[in-house]
């Protein structure tokens, strides 16, 4: 790569960084503004909006509600996705391509269309809007990501380890529990964190399938309808920091666990 291409690539990279991070930085700065109106310049600073967020029972309750939904949907999607990945990887059978296509389809369908379809299907099954419907929709949407991550990890598993376990008398279940599952732990953990964050931040499916108790993205949307205020920025900043901390920790922990497993 010549110098001109390197300079161009560097400019594109930093332009992308600015495009992503400048709005986030402005959002965080406005959350400290000592005024109810969004805008610059900021003449005085305050932590009042953050103390209000942590003192607001509705916000805390909604945050806990969103976390519970994310954990439940992630647990379901990890179990189902891992099972499908083990079924598909390394096997050739009639209908495999169809099963794989149907598995990844929920990740390809636009969110609004997916939410409408889930709403119609839930009504047909007699599922009332609320936590159960949201968990179900989030789990179905997250399964493809688990399948893709676990299948990628499975493709690097040395077949000789499974064959050695079978030669030593292990049945397929014991071989899976002793060899395959420990090898998949880094991928399962990474997929779990990704699904957790996806579910926590999901707005469209939560909006269409939610009941009277909103998730955090739906609550932020409801507050936006009455106008922008630094309170909304404070809520968004807290959610941003928490998701960033969880994501960074998961990335480092997964990388270290993967090295230990391969070592």
UniProtKB/TrEMBL annotation:
| Stored InterPro entries | Bact_Polyamine_Transport (IPR051789), MetI-like (IPR000515), MetI-like_sf (IPR035906)
Q: Which GO terms describe its biological process?
A: transmembrane transport
Q: Which Gene3D superfamilies match?
A: MetI-like
Annotated ABC transmembrane type-1 domain residues: 63-250
**Which keywords annotate this record?**
Cell membrane, Membrane, Transmembrane, Transmembrane helix, Transport
Stretches that traverse the bilayer: 12-32, 63-86, 98-121, 133-154, 175-200, 232-250
Determine the domain of life of the protein's source.
Bacteria
- Which compartments does it reside in? Cell membrane
Q: Which CDD domains match?
A: TM_PBP2 (cd06261)
Q: Which residues form the signal peptide?
A: none
- Record keyword Disulfide bond present: no
Instruction: Identify the main location.
Output: membrane
Q: How does it sit in the membrane?
A: Multi-pass membrane protein
GO cellular component labels: plasma membrane
Assigned protein family: Belongs to the binding-protein-dependent transport system permease family. CysTW subfamily.
Q: Tell me the protein's name.
A: ABC transporter permease
**Species annotation:** Stappia taiwanensis
């Amino acid at each position: 790569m010549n110098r001109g291409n390197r300079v161009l690539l560097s400019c594109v990279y930093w332009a992308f960084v600015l495009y992503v991070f400048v709005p986030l930085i402005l959002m965080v700065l406005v959350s400290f503004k000592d005024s109810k109106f969004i805008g610059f310049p900021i003449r005085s600073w305050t932590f009042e909006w953050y103390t209000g967020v942590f003192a607001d029972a509705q916000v805390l309750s909604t945050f806990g509600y969103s976390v519970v939904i994310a954990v439940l949907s992630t647990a379901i999607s990890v179990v189902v996705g891992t099972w499908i990945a083990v079924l598909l990887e390394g096997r050739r059978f009639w209908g495999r391509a169809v099963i794989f296509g149907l598995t990844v389809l929920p990740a390809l369908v636009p969110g609004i269309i997916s939410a409408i379809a889930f709403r119609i299907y839930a009504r047909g099954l007699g599922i009332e809007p609320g936590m159960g419907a949201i968990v179900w929709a989030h789990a179905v949407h997250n399964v493809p990501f688990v399948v893709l991550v676990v299948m990628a990890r499975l493709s690097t598993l040395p077949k000789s380890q499974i064959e050695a376990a079978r030669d030593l008398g292990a049945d397929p279940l014991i071989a899976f529990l002793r060899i395959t599952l420990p090898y998949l732990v880094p991928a399962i953990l990474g997929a779990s964190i990704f699904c957790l964050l996806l579910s926590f931040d999901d707005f469209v499916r939560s909006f269409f399938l939610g009941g009277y108790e909103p998730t955090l993205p739906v609550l932020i949307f409801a507050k936006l309808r009455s106008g922008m205020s630094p309170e909304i920025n404070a809520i968004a900043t807290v959610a941003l920091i928490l998701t960033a901390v969880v994501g960074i920790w998961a990335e480092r922990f997964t990388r270290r666990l993967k090295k230990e497993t391969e070592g």
